[in-house]
Amino acid sequence: MVVRIRLSRFGCKNRPFYRVMAADSRSPRDGKHLEILGYYNPLPGQDGGKRMGLNFDRVKYWLSVGAQPSEPVERILFRAGLLPPPPLLAMSHKGGPRDTRPVDPLSGRFLTPVDPTPLDDEPDEVEDDKSDS
């Protein structure tokens, strides 16, 4: 049995609220779970921040026995300081060459700016051959 740490959606329409839970990978999103590990509220509160609460001891236990976090939970656990940052690569166009510059995992912006190509201060002079014919 493969155990995943993932989000289960609760709340009303347009007002989501999630529980972080350990569940069998074959069970549905809001279905049977093994243990509730915390909660995550993506809507900003009165202070303007997102709310989350995790039982760190149980999350560490499930990670130690081989549970795989889903991508959203992996980002939540990174912000909580339990996991290293996930590898991010930015793509310029779909199917195009990948941009290999490092990306900040919290903001999603590039850490180093693009080096502009050096331009010559003096433009090349083009001589026009005008003949008086």
TrEMBL record:
Family annotation (SUPFAM superfamilies): Ribosomal protein S16
Alphabetic keyword roster: Chloroplast, Plastid, Ribonucleoprotein, Ribosomal protein, Transit peptide
Compositionally biased region (Acidic residues): 118-133
GO BP: mitochondrial translation
Locations listed in the record: Plastid, Chloroplast
GO molecular function: structural constituent of ribosome
Cellular component per GO, a single term: small ribosomal subunit
Domain of life: Eukaryota
Chain segments carrying region Disordered: 89-133
Stored InterPro entries: Ribosomal_bS16, Ribosomal_bS16_dom_sf
HAMAP family: Ribosomal_bS16 (MF_00385)
Family stated for the protein in its record: Belongs to the bacterial ribosomal protein bS16 family.
Protein name: Mitochondrial ribosomal protein S16
